[in-house]
Amino acid sequence: MMNQRQDWPTDGLESVPACPVCGSTSRALLYEELTDIVFGTAPGRWTLYRCIQCEAAYLDPRPTPSSIGLAYAHYYTHTTEDSPEGRPKSPLVRLLHGWVNDHFNARYGLTRTPASWGGRWLIPLVPFFFAKSRAKMRHLTPPLPGGGRLLDVGFGNGSFLKIASEMGWRAEGIDFDAKAVEVARARDLNVSCTSVSELAARPCNESYDVITLSHVIEHVHDPIALLHDLYRLLKPGGRLWLETPNINSLGAVRFKKYWRGLEVPRHLVLFSPSSLQTSLMNAGFKQIEQHWHGMAALSMYSESGALAHRQDTQEASRQIIPSIAAIIDEVREMMQPSRREFLTFSARK
Length: 349
What we know:
The protein is an alpha/beta fold.
């Protein structure tokens, strides 16, 4: 484990004089002296700025593409057990996951385990549960007969790839992290160590029916170029789904520099709702729709609170009873899309 008080290598830093989202140079200081309090492995102290023009936030200076690997030495994708999906959960969360699996099995013909009886009826009746289950599936539906081609960018530990494959999709994943690829291949997943830009540079564009990115775009040095490359990779009428932390969320305002969504220095750019929607439009996407990731406030608040009190975030995620503030803000986020913890969007080419 690295000492956070060590400096990031000087030759591994680059300045960011303009907003990576809109190009504006007008900005305000948001936080300084930030450290990696989430994993406690990345060295350096970091400064986060807020763009006055589009309200996105970004690090300046930030790690270079060649040095950013230092921040991922102990990242959760390197083992299935350390991933959010693989961590021990509270009895309540385990029960909910069992209900969700039963709902998935009934709705999509899957065989997810463990499955708790009654989920197929209960989940659709409770808005928070139903929104959570739909987000977990990335609002995906089974493909047409013959299957469809799906690409998951930054596939984590591969859990979604397994679900998509079980639904009948010809699912494949890409990641720049060789260790993550190694772990996924050990699970017999169709993955490769490459980037979206490398795929988009190949002559066979317009290859995919669906492309998904779950908490990936905030890790990218040039998110606008990424969106344009994704547009090129989709077939006409193809669907993009992405999710990323919302810098305008109620949790970001409440917890400030302890908000779980900051995660410096891995999160290089944090979007606001309007900046993400505008970026999608400028890349050529149509039929842009925002979705609600139910129960996100519950998990984000427990982990953010743990960070504020220097407690173990994994232990906090296993708490049985959420805080009153988390419950109240979960209801508020249902009615206020611009203040949700996550920006969950889908769009068509």
